[in-house]
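Why show two proteins at once? Because comparison is the fastest way to build intuition. When a single record is shown, students tend to memorize it. When two are placed side by side, the eye starts asking what differs. So, the first record is below.
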Amino acid sequence: MNSNKSVLIIFTGGTISMMRDPQTGALTPADINQFREFMPELFHSDINVDMLPFDPLIDSSDMNPPIWSKLANIIYDNYSKYDGFVITHGTDTMAYTASALSFMLENLCKPVVLTGSQLPVGVLRSDAKENLLTAIEIAAEQDEEGNAVVPEVCIFFEAKLYRGNRCTKKNSEHFAAFKSYNYDPLAVAGVHIHYFQHLIHYGDINKPLRLRTKIDQNVAILKLFPGISEKTVKAILGIEGLRAVVLETYGSGNAPSDKWLFEALQDAVKRGIIIVDKTQCLMGSVELGRYETSLHLLEAGVLSGYDITTEALLTKLMYLLGENGDDTDEVRRLLQIDLCGEMTID
């Protein structure tokens, strides 16, 4: 571990912050003093660790844009005081929070590492200690010139460091809860931590961090399935105030060829609703026009989401709509640009 480095741990909640009640067996939030007792290692290393707990702690199912904004503001306000940041977070919505922060913290040049656990910190076989201690080491790691080795929003879980806006939760049972299907891990932790620098996104150290927390939540997800009705599609596209839709399609971006579907999507686009094609497959990319069953989507004005995750696309839409107001053309333009490593455009 590096010496004289400082890391701020922001405790939001999640399983990692829980303890089992000896009387009832139920999981309850642990206070910060109990957490210190379970993990004395935090305060016996060469890294100075400060702890900032949410009060009350938050279940990840209750995460929302105002909390994302609160986290971004905490990091922004403490940016000059620490070499890196670790956020403990429940696993269920961790990928959404990581994706949102990657857009909110523009030109980030320090690590923000989200982590958690599948078992509470006080349980004998818990994965909490390894995940948290390694996340702290990664957050403090610097190169010979004193620059952060991984200056982006990441998720560390079960020995692998992933780009935050490339992740999705894949398993609710195993310790390896996350996977980045379209982008390789940024680092792998064993006896040593091996970083793959050619995969890491670097900001401009000569430019300041910019906080971008305006969010527009008027978005929806429309997942296609065999037999989906015209009534269902039109009900979603007809939501009052709707500004954008993640259209989850088949394969490389394909959809049924029904005339009514084409007309419903085309009408929505004409009304100013942005529709982005996102494949339901975990791996691979949207290729609009590759098959006839996606050509009509292109003709209707649907945009390609390439290989972006649903979590990243949804938060990117919220971010772009919030930051750009009624400028739909600018939002559409930026959706086709890789802003911070969230997608690969051929």
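Second record. Ask yourself what differs from the first in the token line.
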Amino acid sequence: MLTKLKFKLLNMFREFLVYHSSSLEFRAELILLMVMSNNHIVECEEKIIKKIAAEIYGDNADRSRLLLETIHELHDKVLVKNGLDYTDLIMKITNDIKRTPRFVNKINIEHLKQFKVCIAEEEERIFHDRIIDFLHELKEEYGKL
């Protein structure tokens, strides 16, 4: 119970209490871009998210969990149409990279490609590939700066 409350507070005041919160939120947005086509994050996607979080943050279980919480929070915003959809998210990611070019190094294409195994429909697979291509182009363009 106390741990749950701790993460709720950290998530609510992430910007003030979490070291490099903008970096964590950027990573959450990238992952959300891969999973936001569903009304909920399916089990396959959840497993991949946990695996990626563990790879990114290693021994820091709290930060991994905070990444998961942030992804779910952003996903909820998508569901209630709280000013967040694919277009908004893509624009936000692009603007974040323009504002903070080092964020381009946080785009791990191999991590993001893993979500393709969770996609059943061909149209969604094509869309996934296009998102990956877009992120790869961003990485190419801003990685040279």
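One difference worth noting in the second protein: The two ends are 46 Å apart (CA to CA).
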